[in-house]
Amino acid sequence: MTVLLSFGEVLVDLLPTDATGKHHQPIAGGAPANVAVGYAKLGGKSYFAGGISADHYGVMLKQALADQGVATDYLAEVPGAATATVLVNLDEQGERTFEFNRNGTADMRYSKQHFDHIPWQGIDIFHLCSNTFTETAIFNTSLYGARCANAFATLVSFDVNLRLSLWQDLSLLAERVEQCFRYTQVLKMSREEADYLALVRDKSFEDYLQFCLAQGVEVILVTDGANPVQCITAQQRFSVPVPKISAVDTTAAGDSFISGFLFALGLDLQYDLGYLTLKQRLESKEHLEAAVVFATRCGAITCGQKGAFPSLPTLAQVSSFLL
After folding, report:
1. Domain 3-315: homologous superfamily in CATH
2. CA nearest neighbour of 229 among 206, 274, 261
3. Distance CA 200, CA 211 (A)
4. What is the pTM (predicted TM-score) of this model?
5. CA 135 distance to own-chain centroid
């Protein structure tokens, strides 16, 4: 069984409970935390690394991760820091807008020293997002984690996952995101995110994809809502249609997709007669396509329910999903 370490923010999503939007229910969330939970619910072994508060929300979040089968050995409690919260608003199509409360919160206080205590030789995949790039200290910590992963030949997965409202200085965004590319093997971004980054660099979408590959990225996954997912490598390119669904809440759909992809990429690795490693599987269209198909089903199932952790599917749900 492959082992995932997902790093970043675990926070409280405040979801509306009525049409007025005046009442909200606190639910555990945060993109990297969702990925850790998604991987665990599918049957994989996952750890979550990040800063967590000692307040009542922090206690709730740690328990929520553990309840979903995520190992919390590498959580770091940050005394005196609050838990980050995000107010989630949904439109009629289930699309979200976010209002973040994340000033000096615990998720921003993880340090390089915390990564030094992780036994990297036992980690197969390291996953991170760009929400820990918004401030210099946590950005440096994030890149340090990616470098640690590289040093131990751990596959690095990076979901761009842009939240522009989190950035006090947007002029730093593209540069910091692109610095992470040099440590990344699997890069996920939405078409909207790719277009944004391409525009900043005055490049076309296609030229920006080639730029990403030139930085050393091995596989690029581009999601585009109800449109097919594109998978791009230096040697090949293909698209996979997504299941047609009626979306209820798209909050964790991208996280469900990437956790599903990473899980499927390593599925039954020990029984692979070709003895392909995870990184060798990135060069195999057969393995890549199967993983993307699996991932689109995960994302579709998640869109059919409200909330993050509860909407992430089990392997049985994905296996029985009807297209």
Report:
1. Ribokinase (3.40.1190.20)
2. 261
3. 13
4. 0.94
5. 19
